[in-house]
Amino acid sequence: MVELKRRLKLKVNGDDYEVFVEPHRTLLEVLNNNLDLTGTKYGCGSGECGACTVLIDGRPVLACLTLAVSVEGKDITTIEGLSDGERLHPIQQALVEHGAIQCGFCTPGFVLKAVALLDENPNPSEEQVREYMRGNLCRCTGYVKIIEGILAAAKMKR
Full-prediction pTM beyond 0.85? Predict the structure, then answer.
């Protein structure tokens, strides 16, 4: 059976896109393959690592588990939508300054999840940051510097 492509209108990083995709395509596939937004990473494909985290209407969502057709009409934010030209988002800057970026593969997912956390709770404790970031995996840093960077970003934001 051949699956027909469906026309989708997506709003990504404030820009409107129209794409034609099969209804079974994930948001991750559409971002990477149709929109050439490759900052959202494919890690595990099963929702275990957080590398594909994006924001949908300001909430963190795993793009590898989200059908693209389910986010039509919603605001989608990827890592590409956070910087202002050459200027990094404050969370990105704080992670760089605290040495929390090594290979960088997990960084987009951590940054977007941290954005959602600080929007929800501008003054989190270390324990709250650790709990919120649970589910985002990093094989390089050991998490300490990531947590320090997020806490520093929260302090800068206040």
Answer: yes
